[in-house]
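Work Package 3 (structural annotation) set out to generate three-dimensional models for the target panel prioritized at the project kickoff. During this period the team completed the workflow that converts sequence records into discrete structure tokens, so that structures can be stored uniformly alongside our sequence database. As a representative example, we reproduce one entry of 1439 residues exactly as it appears in the project archive.
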Amino acid sequence: MTLPHSPGNVGESRTPQAMEVHRLEHRQEEEQKEARQHSLRMGSSVRRRTFRSSEEEYEFSAADYALAAALALTASAEMSWEAQLRRQASTVELEERGQKRVGFDNHWERTEIAFLRTHRLLRQRRDWKALRRRAEEKVREGKELRELCSSRGPWFWIPLRSHAVWEHTRVLLTCTIQASPPPQVTWYKNDVRIDPRFSPAGKYRITNNYGLLTLEIRRCTVEDSATYTVKVKNAYGQASSYAKVIVRTYLGKEAGFDSEIFKRSMFGPRVEFTSVLKPVFAREKEPFSLSCFFSEDVLDSDQNIQWFRDGRQLRSSARRQTLYADRQATLKVSFAYKEDEGFYMIRVSSPLGPQQQSTYVFVRDAAAEKPGAPGSPLNVRCLDVNRDCLILTWVPPSDTRGNPITAYSIELCQGDSGEWVPCHEAPGGTCRCPIQGLIEGQSYRFRVRAVSRAGSSIPSKASEAVVMGDRDAARRQTEIPFDLGSKITVSTDDFEDAVTIPSPPTNVHASEIREAYVVLSWEEPRPRGKAPLTYALEKSVIGSGTWEAISSETPVKSPRFALLDLEKGKSYVFRVRAMNQYGTSDPSEPSEPITLRGKPATLPPPTQVQAFRDTQTSVCLTWDPVEGGPELLGYYIYSREVGSSEWQTVNNKPIQDNRFTVPGLRTGKDYEFCFRSVSEAGVGESSAATEPIRVKQALATPSAPYGFVLLNCGKNEMVIGWKPPKRRGGGKILGYFLDQHDSEELDWHPVNQQPIPARVYKVSDLHEGHFYEFRARAANWAGVGELSEPSSLFECKEWTMPQPGPPYDVRVSEVRATSLMLQWEPPLYTGAGPVTGYRISFQEEGSDQWKPVTADPISGTHLRVSNLQPGKSYVFQVQAMNSAGLGQPSMPTDPVLLEDKPDAREIEVGVDEEGFIYLAFEAPEAPDSSEFQWSKDYKGPPDPQRVQIEDGLNKSKVILKDPGLEDLGTYSVVVTDADEDISASHTLTEEELDKLKKLSHEIRNPVIKLISGWNIDILEQGQVRLWLEVEKLSPAAELHLIFNEKEIFSSPNRKINFDREKGLVEVIIQNLSEDDKGTYTAQLQDGKAKNQITLALVDDDFDKLLRKADAKRRDWKRKQGPYFEEPLQWKITEDCQVLLTCKVTNTKKETRFQWFFQKKETPAGQYDPQTGAGLLLIEEFSKEDKGIYRATVSDDRGEDDTILDLTGEALDAVFAELGRIGALSATPLKIQGTEEGIRIFSKVKYYNVEYMKTTWFHKDKRLESGDRVRAGTTLDEIWLHILDPKDSDKGKYTLEIAAGKEVRQLSTDLSGQAFDDALAEHQRLKALAIIEKNRAKVVRGLPDVATIMEDKTLCLTCVISGDPTPEIFWLKNDQPVTFIDRYHMEVRGTEVTITIEKVNSEDTGRYGVFVKNKYGSETGQVTISVFKHGDEPKELKTM
């Protein structure tokens, strides 16, 4: 290919680098030419403007255009290096254009280049002529215009333009007039003439500079919004122009399209946060929520409000809700898991871009099911999911509660069954485990429990559900698109033969090797056939030469298998066979040797851990990350207060960053932190603890001062005051840098070179009548802070007013729910006379009305304002007054919210260890550079002659040197350099001071506190123990024991013990005697503390003690043998029996037990040698049983007895108890019909007339025994007999039984059916009694058997009764007796006699007399036996 040639140098070639350079130069030249032409069109001069809105445009005059044309001609005529470069670039361009035809003919190329160059020169000449012609026309028009403008009325060359400006800025209205002669100019605001003399000082500035009219309005306010008109007038006419000025509240720093007003008009209001997201400390299984408020309503909140956790957007779900209502956005979690821990961020769309806030949510471990069990694992995930197996991973818990994790228990849930079944247990040193034997096509969820020796944790959050399937199925498929979006899916399985024995698998290798298992993987055989495949695995130990089949509970369907039963230290090779329904493949090639790895090591902790201050309750931590690669899961952070041995878990979800802010710490406390790395091997070792760091606000530059006020003014000087920054940056304000600005000048000038320590400063060298504004910066150790907004314009004019100037430095302290303390400084300018008082006013938030706090002025410079409404905000201002009246008000305070802060501290009043009375105040949240400023009665620091102030770390103490009435009053303290009010006060009263002085005296003159004075105990063997107890004493404490004015020491008979730790002094006298009578005094001294305790053992007190000691000694000797552990005592059983009991101890087999009554042994007593119990039961106790009862026990070691005297009062007590139990045993009243009447009775187990009293009542009327009513008792019954009952006897009957103090009442109702039944029974029994009385009866007389000798006369007589007189019949052997010959019967009244003369053996038999009448009959029988002479009767023989 032929290179292009230059027309002037044919045949000379150019390099491509040179062509590229020329091309670049040509392009730059063209860009510069276009920029120059654009600048000429816009104008050659720049006008200086003080303010111009974004909507304003430039306009150019005819002179401007003429000047532009002249510059163009001048530039075209010069042959500069730029023109030469442009010509060379044009030549290069022509050469490039001809490059396409250079291969055909060089002659034509040269002709074309010459033509193009000639054409370009002609075009340039044409442009020069056109520019010259245009410039001449403009010059001619300018001359004509000057001629027209001379000697004519005014007209506006450039009229006024409307302006929209921000509040507190200035606006410049300008216009240009043409008039000859110069006209008179007048400015108007809303058709009212503007006269600077009658307007606020420095407000307006009007100028006329050769036809350029300006009106400058300084520091615009909303009231300056108006229509401004300028009118010009001369001898030839007048003209006017007007413009509107709109002053808007300043809402942003930018103007134009970036301004707040524009964005509000175009995009709606700007949404900002009005509250701050705070850290949340939730607990596992419990709900938590996050919420924040907005300044405006958020439109389309579902789209414009977004919640994120760790950078991932959150959506509403069954467990999580995102809500928005009433400018409040809320995120609610109903059931927290540790996976919910993390950084939460809320983002809301706004015209200026998205606004966002973030915070951290901590989720603590739930309470363990068993004490000491570890926390639950988290982040359970399923990896490498196949047809029948998967890999399960999780994150170990941060808190094991002191017990190492020994294992992890894995549970699975199949489908939606909700039933969790244990499926595997993994060792404690790993957080990764294979799960096998799963079913293809089925879904599973898993959860994990951590196990230690203390028990099992609660289960973790369940993993996401996974469906088992063939992960290689997608790889075997190919999609073929066709026909505009359609596609055909082709699988390699479609090309497999239907009947195929699979080939051996390939690439058998270990895809994962761990301490407890190996995951074996291989590739599917090719060809594999269409039939489903399963696999059989074999293993071989290196060196064995044999292959062993690996058994599996379920067929292996996936090309992966986990081996869990391999032995450590051995090397294995594996091979795999593929099987389907048509056969089994050959074995695959053996794998590489595989050996189980050792126990995985945990990762080391991070290094270079550093802690930095952040806020009052948080600390920022940074560290160098651990080089752990993919094994690193994050870090756990632990904290503890200095001095504590227990580490607290900060986060329960591993942090993956290398920076974290720990919130929720206690202000002013020192903390240490340590880290542990988290990996699948578990939680690593702890890092070294960081250096202790105190929780305080981090040091930063302060915010801007504000609230500038003029305090005094002279001819050429001003005194300026201002308020301190709202944010002091956590350090002391070192001073302020003040700038001033004269409204007549453009620049600001510094007032001071060195920082001003105070907030009041006199500015000198000012110009009288000028207006000045000021601004300031505050400086601390972190540097110089933000620049304040300019103050208002202050006129430098000497104050001569009679009223005082404004008070300053009005400050609020001791803010509580209903009160606060207001303090201020008196005015620097007092006016015509001294200040006589102050008037304080307040204004509620949202109100424009100022109300006086007090009805009358106050004389001091402080006031406690009370009776305010809690929860409201107030603003206060102070005015000084003198004889001329009220002066200027002070700068109002910032709004003060009345509330009780939960952590507000008060002044502590007490007495220290040295006995000094003090007032102390502690403020842990105070910055390091803070000072405690004490004041007495709000008049200044306390008198150093009377108090001593000691400052410590975050605390200060005022110590009263010599407390007296001069020290009474109100002590207040304020902590300086704090962003929030930290102050308190305490009024020390005379009553409180007296109590403190008393306590001080006790401390300075201490007395050993006496807990228990002298006590006397008699020990088991009769020793006497004298002891006293005081407070705990030091090892240096001393004891002096004085007995009868003489110090005594330990001896065999008197043992003295002094236990300083317990404060115990004791004297043990082995054998008390007359020598021990006297006074005992214990003198104690412990440092300065002393005490003396005296015990007098004399007279009757000593005699009684001596007798008790002797008795105790004898009792101890008695107990050396068998003795009565429980003495003889009585008790009443439920059956009203008296039971005497005692108990013997220290017995043996030969021990003898005896009972005695009235000195006579009684065998009725019982004794159980096994238990030692003695019993004597008296079944029916009566006065015959009164007397002395005695029990004795004896053996070769000794004898003991116990006596019970049941006489006198003791006997009465037994009977009284019997009566009480008898009364309680009374059964309910029963009703019984008798032949005499109706009987009401109650059964009792015991009744004694002397100790039990009974009273009967009928209808609450007491009954007495009489003709018809009889009352009586027996040993077991109490009865009432109603004779011949009548209807008047019906009603309620009550029995009252009194036994001592025990009274019992029993009632029954004798009426209705009860009365009828009883009356019927009475009548029946009465009738039976009549029949029984009148019927025929054999009353008496007949013996059962009678014997008689033959030939004797037998006479049998009986008595009969009956009405009417009964009939009489005699029977012999049940046959009637005929009274003839020897048988005779004689009746004499009621006597009936039968006589048998000369009896013989035939008269032997059974005889009976039978009597009867109309009421009945009866038979009396007798057996007669007749014996012969010389024989004995049968009865005698039997005897």
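The longest helix spans residues 106-149.
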